[in-house]
Amino acid sequence: MGYYLQNTFDHDAVSFRLINDYPSRPGKGIRPALCLAACGLLGGNILNALNTATTIEFLHNAFLIKDDLVDGSVYRRHDVTLNRKYGFELAMNTGDALNVLGMTPLFDNLKELGVQKSLQIIREIHRMAAKSVEGQCMELSWVKSNKLDLTPDDYYLMAERKTCWYTCITPCRTGAIIGARSIKASDLESITGFARSIGLGFQIRDDVLNLVASFENYGKEINGDIREGKRTLMLIHLLRSCSDDERDRIGRKLSKSRMKKTNEEVEFIRRAMDRYGSIDASIRVAQGFGSRARKTLERSGWAKEARWKEFFIELTGYLVEREM
Amino acid sequence: MGYYLQNTFDHDAVSFRLINDYPSRPGKGIRPALCLAACGLLGGNILNALNTATTIEFLHNAFLIKDDLVDGSVYRRHDVTLNRKYGFELAMNTGDALNVLGMTPLFDNLKELGVQKSLQIIREIHRMAAKSVEGQCMELSWVKSNKLDLTPDDYYLMAERKTCWYTCITPCRTGAIIGARSIKASDLESITGFARSIGLGFQIRDDVLNLVASFENYGKEINGDIREGKRTLMLIHLLRSCSDDERDRIGRKLSKSRMKKTNEEVEFIRRAMDRYGSIDASIRVAQGFGSRARKTLERSGWAKEARWKEFFIELTGYLVEREM
Predict the structure, then answer these.
(1) What share of chain B is helix, strand, coil (3-state, %, to 5)?
(2) Which of A22, A106, A313, B22 could form an S-S bond across to B61 if both were Cys, CB 3.0 to 4.6 Å?
(3) Rounded-to-integer distance, Cα A159 and Cα A93, Å
(4) Cβ–Cβ below 8 Å for A136 and B90
C-alpha cells in the first residue's frame, strides 16, 4: 500500500491509516485469486496478472467503503465500518482516494503487457465499474419503489451487474486476456459465462449467509439485507409463494426505511421465508449455478492448465457452499 | 449525454433525468473551453480535443454531486442540489454513474489520437483525479483539526491540488498534448505553471465571490465557506492579522460544525474580514496571479496560434475578476 500511496499522491494528506484500514482487514481475496488463477489457467505467468489483481482488490475495497456509507452499515470484516469509526466525510474521502489509488497498478502493466494490452485491461476495468454502478442503480430503484413483483430472472439480471462483473467476470476476463497469447472472442464469451455462474452462486450464497450465518463467521449484521429491503432471491421467492394478503403485509413492512423497521418486522419476514422454504430453494439454486459452472469448465477448450483447472473446480464448490 | 449513456450502460437503470441534471444546468464551461483552446493554441485541430474536454466536464459534474453531498449544500447553479432533490442514496449513485460515464469519451480518442496518446491522456486524467482527492483531503483535515496557523503558501499548496489541476492544469496539459505534434517536457512544465496561476486566481476569486456576490449571480449560498469552516485565503489573512485574543474567539466559532454555527457567528467572522481588509488583500493576490499568468503566456514559445493566445489573455482577466 505504501508503494502505491507514494506512486499516486505527492503529499501526505491521504492518511495511510485510513486508506489501509479495509485492505488490511482479513478478507477472502476471491477477486485477485480469480484473476491470477485465470491467467495461469490460460497458460500465462501469473506474475503478469499481479498489477491487475491488485487494482481489482483495491477497487473492491473502495466499493465496500462507499457501500457501507450508503447502507449506513455498522460492521464489515469483523470490525466497525469506516463511516462509524471516522465519520461520513473522512470515510467518503478515503473511498475516493482508494478508488484513484486503485487505478495506479494498471499503469505498471505497460512494462510487461505493452501499450495495447494495457489499454485493453483499462477498458475491461472501466466496463466492470459501469456494470457495478448499473447493478447498484437497479437494486436501489427496486428498494425505493418497493417493488413486489420481481422474478428470479430480474434478480439474475441485477446480480450479474451488481456482483458477477466485479467479483468474477472481470477478474476472469482480465486474467485470461493477460494469460493467453491471444484469445478468441468465443473463448472470452465462454469464460464470461462460467464466471457469471460462479458469481451468481456466490451472491446467492452470500444472501443466504446474511440470514443463517453466525456473526462470528460472517462479520456483518445478520438479517441486514431484510432490514435494508434488499430484493434477494429468498425475498423474491417468498413474495411469489405467499398469499396476496401476506404479500400486502410484507410489502408494508418492507416499505419502511431501514431505521424505521422494527426487529419484530424483520423477524416476521425472516420466519415467513422459513415457512415457505425460500432459503432452501435458494440454496439449491446456488448449487445449480455451481454445477453449471463446473460443466462449462469441464467442456471448455480454454482451460489449459490442469492444476489451475483443479483450483477452479474446488473454488466453485467453496463459493456456492461456503459457511463464511 | 444519451450517446454516452448508451455507450456506457446496457440497461436503463441509470436514470437519464438524474445523470443529466447537473450537466444540463447552465455552467461556465471553463474546463472544456480551456482544453479545446489549449489544443488550438499549440496548433492542433480543436475537434481532436473534444472527447477529452467532454470527459473533463462530466467528471467535474460528478465531482460537484459528491462535493454537494459531503458539504450538505442546498444550492448549485441556481437550483437545489441533487441531494436535496432526490436524497442521499440516489445522488450518490448518480455521482458514481457520472464518474464512470465520464471516462467513456476517452476510449473514443483511439481513432484520432492512436493508442499511445490515448493512454497518455488517460494517465493525465488519472493524475488529475489523484491531485483533486489529495487537495480535498488537505482541506478537510484542516477543517477537522480546526487549524488556525496556516500560511498563504499552505493555501496555494492545497488550492493547486484541490482546484488548479482539474480546473486548469489538466485541461491545458491534455489540450496541449493533443494539439502539439510532439511536446517538449519543458513546454509542458511551462504550460502547467501558466495554468496553475490562472487556477489560483480563479479559486481565490471564487472564494471572494462566496462572500461578496449576490445569490442571483453566484447561485450558491453566500458565506457558505465560512459556515463550512473552509480555510480560504481571506480566513488565513484574517487569522494572521488579528490579535491573539480575536484569533481565540474566531477559532472557537470555527470549531463548531456547519449546522451548529449561528448566523451571528458567521456574520462576526465576515465583519472581521472587512475590518482587517482580508477581502481586498485577496482580490489583489488573485489579480497578481492573473498578471503572472499573462506574463508566462507572453514570453512563452508554446503559444503558437495568435487568436487562441488572445482568447487565453481575455480569459485570464475574466477568471480573476469575474462577478459570477
Answers:
(1) 75, 0, 20
(2) B22
(3) 27
(4) no
- CA gap A26, A22 in Å, rounded: 8
Distance separating the N- and C-terminal Cα atoms of chain A: 26
Using an 8 Å CB-CB cutoff, list chain B residues near A126: 100, 103-104, 107
> In this model, does residue A71 exceed pLDDT 90?
no
Q: Which helix (H) or strand (E) holds B288?
A: helix B278-299
**Distance (Å) from the alpha carbon of A204 to chain B's nearest alpha carbon:** 21
Longest dimension (CA), chain B: 63
- Of A161, A159, A172, give the one whose Cα is nearest residue A282: A159
A2-305+313-321 domain in CATH 3.30.2350.10?
no
- Report strand pairing: B75-76 vs B79-80: antiparallel
Contact with chain B for residue A271, Cβ under 8 A: no
Q: What is the CATH code for B2-321? A: 1.10.600.10
Given CB atoms, is A10 within the 8 Å cutoff of chain B? Answer: yes
- The distance from CA B265 to its chain's CA centroid, rounded to whole angstroms, is 28
Predicted structure pTM score: 0.95
Q: Would the CA dihedral through B105, B109, B111, B115 be positive or negative?
A: negative
Contacts of A235 (CB under 8 A, 6+ apart): A225, A226, A269, A273, A278
ipTM at complex level: 0.93
Residues 6+ apart with CB under 8 A from A247: A148, A239
pLDDT mean for each 10 residues of chain B (324 residues):
92 89 92 98 97 98 93 87 93 96 97 96 98 95 96 98 97 98 96 98 96 80 91 98 97 94 96 97 98 96 95 96 87
**CB-count exposure of residue A281 (10 Å: 0-12, 13-18, 19+):** middle
